[in-house]
Specification:
Structural class: mainly alpha
Number of helices: 3
Shape: elongated
Distance between the termini: 21 Å
Helix content: 55-70%
Largest sheet: none
Order of helices and strands: HHH
């Protein structure tokens, strides 16, 4: 029953999602490190 978006999921995406990471300098560094490790999933 995924008709209603769970608020927890929204909060999680906003805090740890790709766009949030890209918005900050430190976040970009995080993504860079994860790419270097060949992570299949960079963010949530």
């Amino acid at each position: 029953m995924e008709k209603f978006i769970k608020l927890k999921k929204v909060k999680r995406k906003r805090k740890h999602g790709f766009l949030f990471r890209m918005a900050t300098h430190a976040g970009k560094k995080v993504l860079k490190r994860r790419k270097e490790k060949k992570r299949t999933r960079l963010t949530i």
